[in-house]
Amino acid sequence: MKKFRLACSRVRRIRLSLCMIFAWPMLMMAYASAIAETSMRTDGLDALVQEALEHNPAVAAARNHWQALKLAPIQAATISDPEVSLQHFTVGSPQPFSGYETSDFYYTGFGVSQDIPGPGKLGLQKSEAERDADYALHRYEAAQRETTAEVKRLYFELFYHKKTLEILDRNRTEFEQIQQIAETRYRAGQGLQQDLLKAQLQTTEILKEHAMHHQEEDQAQLELKRMLGRDPDSPNVEIGGVEPAHLELGAAELLSLTDRGSPELAADRAMEARSAEALKLARQDYWPDFTVGYSYQKTGPGFRDYYMLSVGAKIPLYFWRRQTPAIEQAALENNAARAQTRATQLGAVSAAEGDLLAMRTAERIMTIYRDGLIPQAETSVAAAMAAYRTGKADFQTLISAVLDLQSLRQEYYRALADHEIAIAKIQQIIGDVK
């Protein structure tokens, strides 16, 4: 009898080993299929980005503001409109044409005058307006990049929730199977009622987590529709697969690309240049503006007509109260603009380096999960399931193995989403660099 039991035990071990041998390729194929599914990148994300750039209200506002300011330089470089005047001078009576034939003081005059700014002022005004247009252009580019990064972030967040919901659905099915196994063992007197209750509890926990992720998914859908300019009650955006992108950047290259590619930094530099032009213009206000006029006066018959040329100048008489404080104000604003440019530069570099660190960290985490933890956890689940069926493992071991695998799969997709979001943030700063 003892020999028979030993033989049966050996047979069960051989069966378990054979089961693991044949199950291993199937597990690897299933895992490879899951990973391949994530690498099926569609052009849906690019289409969503393009839609957002065309319909997002913030981008449209920045674009219209830039297009409006492009029309300002030609206006700033143009002198003011001339002034045309008509004069009627009567003699002896307020009635029109009184003294027309009797007095040489009577006249009807026509004149024109033109204000002429001081030397160099028009050119500086034009240059200042051009810097305003440059600033608006860079703010428009910044709005485009910000919108693109936000659309990508929401897309990758939705991808994570989609994969998590799929994992939870799969685990719910597995726990339902485990619950049936526990119930069968309990009815056969080989298991505990506590195992059956734990299986039911885990199924309920999965339903709760499923509801929470579904709520977060709905919220992300609403935010994405807002970025796309769609109505909140429009159909949900379809989320496709995501392939891990590859971005090779060194610290020196990242610094150079940030300095040359950041639209926020370019906008601040344009504002710095504008403040320098404003300072030059404030200094030019020490020079007077001029007015040139010419008039023709028609007198009565028998009298000679009058012709008059006039030149006037606006003298900066109160310069200590107007021009001098204006120069000091412009100088302080120029210093503030330089400081703001430096602050933006430091902030952009810090943000880019932080996102680069997050990208590299996510890459390492994905490799650990993909090549080590998840395959090991899948093997552990298969072994625990087989052992529990034969009574060689307790229920808690099986539950822990299943929950560990669920957690590792979710963390892999979380790392994948974080990796893509970090790249999107880097591209927001330096541009779309492959």
Order of helices and strands: HHHHEEHHHHEEHH
- Total count of strands: 4
At CATH level 2, the architecture of the largest domain is Up-down Bundle
Main beta sheet: strand number and arrangement?
A: 4 strands, antiparallel
What does this structure look like?
Helix 1 runs antiparallel to helix 9 (323-389), helix 2 (44-55) crosses helix 5 (121-187) and helix 5 (121-187) packs antiparallel against helix 6 (193-228). Helices cover 71% and strands 8% of the residues. Residues 1-43 have low confidence and may be disordered. It has a 4-stranded antiparallel β-sheet with strand order 1-2-3-4, with no helix packed on it. It is of the alpha+beta class and 434 residues long. It starts with a helix and ends with a helix. The radius of gyration is 40 Å and the shape is elongated. Strand 3 and strand 4 form a beta hairpin. The protein has helices at residues 2-38, 44-55, 57-69, 72-76, 121-187, 193-228, 251-261, 263-284, 323-389, 395-430; strands at residues 83-89, 107-116, 289-298, 306-314. It has 2 domains: 17-79 and 123-285 and 322-430, Outer membrane efflux proteins (OEP), CATH 1.20.1600; 81-116 and 288-318.
Secondary structure blueprint with pairings:
Blueprint: H1 2-38, H2 44-55, H3 57-69, H4 72-76, E1 83-89, E2 107-116, H5 121-187, H6 193-228, H7 251-261, H8 263-284, E3 289-298, E4 306-314, H9 323-389, H10 395-430
Helix pairs in contact: 1-9, 2-5, 3-5, 5-6, 5-8, 5-10, 7-9, 8-9, 9-10
